TrEMBL record:
UniProt keyword annotations, A-Z: Hydrolase, Kinase, Transferase
Top-level taxon: Bacteria
GO terms of molecular function: 2-amino-4-hydroxy-6-hydroxymethyldihydropteridine diphosphokinase activity; GTP cyclohydrolase I activity; kinase activity
Record's keyword annotation contains Metal-binding: no
Pfam family, one: GCHY-1
Organism: uncultured Chloroflexia bacterium
The EC number(s) this enzyme carries: 2.7.6.3, 3.5.4.16
Protein name: 2-amino-4-hydroxy-6-hydroxymethyldihydropteridine pyrophosphokinase / GTP cyclohydrolase I type 2
Gene3D superfamilies: Urate Oxidase (3.10.270.10)
Length: 101
């Protein structure tokens, strides 16, 4: 799915123009998309424990470059809540490997 605009299965020509115009009006880098995914998770799932782990991974399949753009963000919900809700700077983030141990 796209983060710059909604996805649609089928569009008529005037609607297609609107969707493309909207997507170009709010472009996002992959790192912006990863941050937005983490923010939405923190805001949507407040009932989850601070010790639960979240991993947001985004790959943009580039058409004009010879490489794809990739970004990810991860940590426990406690770490992410501190960053997103309170603006604290993390000293370190829990990795998936260390969380699974």
């Amino acid at each position: 799915s796209a983060m710059s605009s909604e996805n649609y299965a089928m569009l008529k020509r005037p609607d297609e123009f609107f969707v493309v115009q909207k997507a170009h009006g709010r472009p996002r880098f992959v790192e912006d998309v990863a941050r937005e995914m983490l923010r939405a998770t923190v805001n949507t799932y407040g009932e989850l424990a601070d010790t639960d782990f979240v991993l947001a991974s985004v790959r943009s399949f580039e058409s004009i470059h010879k490489h794809d753009a990739y970004a990810e963000g991860a940590g426990t919900l406690g770490e992410l809540r501190a960053q997103i809700l309170h603006g604290s700077t993390p000293t370190q983030s829990t990795s998936l490997e260390s969380w699974l141990r």
